[in-house]
C-alpha cells in the first residue's frame, strides 16, 4: 500500500516546516491524500521544531503520528527523540553536518548527507533541506521531482521563482548523493 | 468541484466565513488560533469587509453583539483563555437572540494553561460558560474539509434559529494542513431579518434588541421560548458519523482530532483481530442521541476518548442511561492520546467483557 508517514525534525530556522509543506504540496499534486502537522509555538523560534507529513493512497486516519516510515533529522536531539519511532524497514536521512551521532539500528536504511555544508558551499543556507528532500523522494518514491518542482512554484512567492532552477539542481544532487 | 487547495485549518475557517457572506470580524490574537486573524486582516479589506483587532477579547465579543444586532453575518475567534473572557458577551448575545459565529481553537487549561491542543472546554461550550439558561449550537469538525463545510453551515444555522454557533476545534485542527475542495459557489441561505436594529429613516417602529426583562413573568416567557428553540434544534440538527460500527465489539466515541486518532486505532486493532467502531459526534450541542440509539445493541461496551479529564463522557452516559457499560480514556494539558494508549485501554475492557 502507498503510505508514507514522514517526520522532519531539527532546530527552528532550518526550514523544517517549509520542507514539510513542500512535501505535502507535492503529494497533493500526485493526487494522493496528504496531511501536514507542524509543531507550533515557542519551539519554532530557536528551539526544536518538527512536522509530520502523511502521503497516502487511502484517506488519512490521523495526521498525528506515533511512528513513521521515513525520518529526516537535522540535529542531534531530534535523532535521539525520533530514532525509535522509525518502523523496521524505514528510511533515516540525516544532515551529517549537524548530526554527529549515528544510529545503531540495523533494521532501517540510513543516508547521511552533509547538507548544511553543501548549502553553504552553494552560498545559500536555504537549500539545506532541499538536499535532504531530494534523497527522501528518491529512496521512498513518495513524490516525483516533477511534482516537487511544481510544489516549489506553488508555495514560493513569485519574487523567489528565479531561484527554482537552481533549487532543482540542488534537489538532483541530493537524490544522487 | 471547485478549487482544491492545501490550506491550514485556521485559514480555512476564515476563508469559509468570507465565502458564507461574513463581512465583519472582530478578534484578539492568541495561539493556536492567530492565523485565522492574519487571514482575515489580509482578505477582509479585499472583499469590502471589516477586520478589526480589538483591544481585548471582551471588546471583541461586544463588537460582535453590536454587528449581529444589525443583522449582518459576524465572526469572532479565539482560544480557550480568550473564550473565557468572552463569556459575558456570549450570554448577552444568547439573551438577545442574535445570530453570530464564534470559533474556539482549544488549548490546554485551566488558567493560562499551555498552547498545545486540548478538548477541555467541552463543558464550557456545551453547558453554558456564561450565566443563564442558554445554549450555543456547537459543531466539532475533524478535518480541514469539514472545517470549511461546517463553518458555512454555522452561519446558516445561526441565522435559521437566531442563536450563536460555536466551531469547536483544537490546536491540531487549527495548525494542520490538508487539501480543501471549495465549492465554485456557496449556498448562502437568506432569512428574514426584520428584527434587526438597522437604519430605516423612521419608516417603521424601532426594533429593540436587549437581554434585560425585569418582570420575572416576562423573563420566564423569554426563557420558555429559548427552550422551545433548543428542542427544535435538537430535533433538526443532530449530526454524527458512524464508522465501522456494524459488528464492532467496542464502539469508540470521540470528536474532532481525537476521532481521527481513533480511526487509526480501528485500523491497528483490526490488524490485531479486534473489531472496533467509531461514533463521532459532529454536533456536540445538540448531542447526537439518535446515533447512540442506532448502535446501542451492537457492542459490548462504549469507550469515550478525549483530550480532557472526561467531559463528553458525561453526555455519553446520560444518553446510554446505563444500558451499556461506558468507559473513558484521555490525556490532559496538551498531551495527545497515542494509538497504543487507546489500544491498551481497549484490551483491558475486552478482558472484562469477553
Describe the structure concisely for a colleague.
The complex is a heterodimer of chains A (177) and B (354). Chain A has helices at residues 16-29, 76-82, 115-122, 128-140, 145-155, 164-176, and strands at residues 3-11, 33-38, 48-56, 68-73, 86-95, 109-113.
Protein architecture, described:
The complex is a heterodimer of chains A (177) and B (354). Chain A has 6 helices and 6 strands; from the N terminus they run βαβββαββαααα. In chain A, strands 2-3-1-4-5-6 form a 6-stranded mixed β-sheet, with helices on both faces. The longest helix of chain A has 14 residues. Chain A is α/β, with parallel strands linked by helices and 177 residues long. Chain B is α/β, with parallel strands linked by helices. Chain B has 2 domains: 235 residues, Thiamin diphosphate (ThDP)-binding fold, Pyr/PP domains (Rossmann fold, 3-Layer(aba) Sandwich); 114 residues, Rossmann fold, CATH 3.40.50.920. Chain B is 42% helix and 20% strand. Chain B contains 13 helices and 14 strands. In chain B, strands 3-2-4-5-7-6-12 form a 7-stranded mixed β-sheet, with helices on both faces. Chain B has a 5-stranded mixed β-sheet with strand order 9-11-10-13-14, with helices on both faces. In chain B, helix 12 links the parallel strand 13 and strand 14. In chain B, helix 1 packs parallel to helix 7, helix 3 runs parallel beside helix 5 and helix 10 packs across helix 13. Chains A and B meet through helix 1 and strand 2 of A and helix 8, strand 8 and helix 10 of B. Strand 2 of chain A pairs antiparallel with strand 8 of chain B, so a sheet runs across the interface.
Amino acid at each position: 500500500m502507498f503510505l508514507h508517514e514522514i517526520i522532519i525534525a531539527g532546530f527552528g530556522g532550518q526550514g523544517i516546516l517549509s520542507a514539510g509543506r513542500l512535501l505535502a504540496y507535492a503529494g497533493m499534486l500526485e493526487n494522493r491524500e496528504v496531511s501536514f502537522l507542524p509543531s507550533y509555538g515557542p519551539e519554532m523560534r530557536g528551539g526544536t521544531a518538527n512536522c509530520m507529513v502523511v502521503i497516502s493512497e487511502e484517506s488519512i486516519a490521523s495526521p498525528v503520528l506515533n511512528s513513521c516510515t521515513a525520518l529526516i533529522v537535522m540535529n542531534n536531539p531530534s535523532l535521539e527523540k525520533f530514532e525509535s519511532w522509525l518502523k523496521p524497514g524505514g528510511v533515516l536521512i540525516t544532515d551529517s553536518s549537524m548530526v554527529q551521532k549515528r544510529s545503531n539500528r540495523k533494521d532501517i536504511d540510513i543516508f547521511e548527507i552533509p547538507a548544511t555544508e553543501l548549502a553553504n558551499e552553494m552560498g545559500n543556507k536555504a537549500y539545506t533541506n532541499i538536499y535532504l528532500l531530494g534523497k527522501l523522494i528518491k529512496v521512498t518514491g513518495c513524490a516525483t521531482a516533477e511534482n516537487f518542482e511544481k510544489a516549489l512554484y506553488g508555495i514560493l512567492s513569485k519574487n523567489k521563482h528565479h531561484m527554482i532552477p537552481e533549487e532543482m539542481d540542488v534537489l538532483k544532487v541530493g537524490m544522487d548523493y | 468541484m471547485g478549487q482544491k487547495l492545501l490550506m491550514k485549518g485556521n485559514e480555512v475557517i476564515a476563508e469559509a466565513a468570507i465565502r458564507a457572506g461574513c463581512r465583519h470580524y472582530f478578534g484578539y490574537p492568541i495561539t493556536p488560533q492567530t492565523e485565522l486573524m492574519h487571514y482575515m486582516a489580509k482578505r477582509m479589506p479585499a472583499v469590502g469587509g471589516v477586520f478589526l483587532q480589538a483591544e481585548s477579547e471582551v471588546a471583541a465579543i461586544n463588537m460582535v453583539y453590536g454587528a449581529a444586532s444589525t443583522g449582518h453575518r459576524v465572526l469572532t475567534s479565539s482560544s480557550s483563555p480568550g473564550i473565557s473572557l468572552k463569556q459575558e458577551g456570549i450570554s448577552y448575545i444568547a439573551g438577545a437572540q442574535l445570530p453570530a459565529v464564534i470559533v474556539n481553537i482549544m488549548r490546554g487549561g485551566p488558567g493560562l494553561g499551555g498552547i498545545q491542543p486540548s478538548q477541555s472546554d467541552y463543558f464550557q461550550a456545551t453547558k453554558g460558560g456564561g450565566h443563564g439558561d442558554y445554549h450555543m449550537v456547537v459543531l466539532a469538525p475533524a478535518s480541514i474539509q469539514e472545517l470549511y463545510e461546517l463553518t458555512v453551515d454555522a452561519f446558516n444555522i445561526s441565522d435559521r434559529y437566531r442563536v450563536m454557533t460555536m466551531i469547536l476545534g483544537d490546536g491540531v485542527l487549527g495548525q494542520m494542513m490538508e487539501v480543501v475542495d471549495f465549492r465554485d459557489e456557496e449556498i448562502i441561505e437568506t432569512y428574514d431579518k426584520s428584527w434587526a436594529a438597522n437604519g430605516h429613516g423612521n419608516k417603521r417602529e424601532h426594533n429593540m434588541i436587549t437581554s434585560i426583562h425585569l418582570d420575572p413573568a416576562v423573563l420566564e416567557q423569554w426563557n420558555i421560548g429559548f427552550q422551545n428553540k433548543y428542542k427544535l434544534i435538537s430535533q433538526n440538527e443532530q449530526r454524527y458519523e458512524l464508522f465501522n460500527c456494524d459488528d464492532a465489539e467496542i464502539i469508540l466515541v470521540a470528536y474532532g482530532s481525537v476521532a481521527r486518532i481513533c480511526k487509526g486505532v480501528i485500523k491497528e486493532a483490526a490488524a490485531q483481530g479486534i473489531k472496533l467502531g467509531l461514533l463521532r459526534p459532529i454536533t456536540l450541542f445538540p448531542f447526537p442521541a439518535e446515533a447512540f440509539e442506532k448502535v446501542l445493541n451492537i457492542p459490548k461496551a462504549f469507550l469515550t476518548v478525549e483530550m480532557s479529564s472526561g467531559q463528553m463522557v458525561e453526555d455519553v452516559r446520560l444518553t446510554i442511561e446505563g444500558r451499556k457499560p461506558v468507559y473513558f480514556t484521555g490525556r490532559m494539558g496538551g498531551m495527545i492520546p497515542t494509538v497504543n494508549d487507546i489500544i491498551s485501554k481497549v484490551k483491558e475492557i475486552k478482558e472484562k467483557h469477553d
